[in-house]
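Lab manual, section 2.4: Encoding a predicted structure.

Procedure: take the sequence of the chain (404 residues), apply the prediction step described in section 2.3, and record the output as structure tokens. A sample record is shown.
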Amino acid sequence: MKPKTFFILVAAVSVLALSVYYISNEDVSQKSTMGGALFKDLPVNDVTAITIKSSEGTVNLEKGKKVWRVLEKSSYPADFNEITDLVRKVKDIKIGRVFTADGEILARQTLKLPGEENASKEEMGIRITLKGADKRVVADFVAGKERDTGAGYGGGYLMKPGDVSVYIVDKSFTYTDKKPEDWLDTKLLDVDPIDIKTVSVKAGESVVYSLNRGKPGADPVLADRNDKEQLDPENVKKVFKALSSLTVNDVAGKAESFDEKAFENAKEMLFAHNNGTQYMVSLGSKANAEGDSYYCKIKVGYKKEAQPSADEKTAVEDKPAIAEAKPVETDKAEAEVKADKDKADKDKEAEAKASESEVEDYAKVAAELDEKLNPWVFVLSKWDYDGFIAQRDGLMKKEEEQKE
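Recorded output:
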């Protein structure tokens, strides 16, 4: 064998041996990571901040003293359940396979960093960063394209910034919310319509209408109704349901710094609850050119119902007793009468204390709710806005319905 041929054979065998070595090591690496958690040491309860970056923008969520907040929305409270779901989802990511990808594959699997130079929006992934105590990063990754579920796979592609490895995982983050408004706690109020006693509307100093229930559960009566006005029961129900499951589309900003022109011609609606809680809703102008959303402000207060004084109650309750009283013939009978009176007095005192405590509870809840809602200007959908029916004629039957 010629020396040249020998060296060629040695080189070929060496290349083959190295290839087998690297392939074997890759197989061992694949087997050691397959099924393992990508962020197994993630301290779920210690996460204090989340940043979500995409081609659509950035969302910053931060844990406050009491609640999570959306920084891009003037630090309005965030949806805690949605945040919890995201953190748990990151914690539960399982690795299916790992491979090294070049720029072309990263672009195809939408794994390029948001904002990366020369990358199109279609090539950019979603970067999710979780921070713990002292703003220390505890998880950071770019989520790419979702895997083809039609082939029975599911999950998606993921990589860590600065790493060359691409992970095929069992979770997809394609549909993670990418806009600040999507992370808001959208629940505003949920008041049972049956508990609303009165609804009144004012435009400036003029009363538009007032609907009143004589007693809880009774049909509302329109004040100052003329003979030509016929209430539509469905529209009346709609008004009393306006605060039931009321949600917000967006938060426009802090009320103290908001443009006052948005509420120049506002309608003020007062919803009075049977327990004394009062909800004042200010309905402002359109929030966009399309007219599918409107500005709104909400205040919550408490007004204690006027109750008869203790002396008045005693006077009223004692009258029959005095009228029906019979002469006391024995000391024993007199003692029994005194004992009954003492017990009645104690019962009245206990009832008064319980009533006062209940009032304090309602007032406290109203104050807490006002603290949450009063500082903000909300954006309502047209659907929710129309449910308030701030016009008097909106309560009435249409002319063709009145003729029937």
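Check your result against the sample. The first strand starts at residue 49 and ends at 54.
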